[in-house]
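Open question from group meeting: does this chain pack into something compact, or does most of it stay loose? Before anyone orders reagents, we agreed to write out a predicted structure and look at it together. Recording both the input and the output here so the notebook holds the full record.
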Amino acid sequence: MAAPAVVRALRALPHIRPVPGGSRCLHSTPPCLKARAARVRVGKGDKPVTYEQAHGPHHIAHRKGWLSLHTGNLYSEPGAAQRAVEDAFVRRFLRGTFPGALLAPLVLRRRGRALLVSALLGRALPPAQLLFLQGYAEALLSALYRSPVRIELLTVPAPPVYKHL
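Structure tokens returned:
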């Protein structure tokens, strides 16, 4: 029953005809090779930025460090893609565990089998709730990854400002 309807629908579509001589095109405009990703635009000097935001992505390993430290990216080291997926999961999980309290990107370090997470939090949550959430996140991530996970929290009253752009 469905086959005749499909055939009729295909017959109703206009046939696409190739443009003569249009298989290859020459573009005379120059490409825009400007890298604009992960950059903060310069304003009137009233926009506060952190140290991570102030330096562009091409300054990684020169002026600022990596946010994920492990040996998986070395030559012929297996499991680099799996570690990247795990890091993305941990970042999303902790962003949801501490809602609106994370002030800076998380720094993930792997030492052997242990995963160390450093986070900078605002003082939006009471200390008792903060310690409960820390223990909850450590226990749940340790059970999921079957390896020890330690979360180091640093609370500050306001977001750290490196400079104004």
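Observations to bring back to the group:
The helical segments are 2-12, 51-54, 80-97, 127-145.
Residues 127-145 form the longest helix (19 residues).
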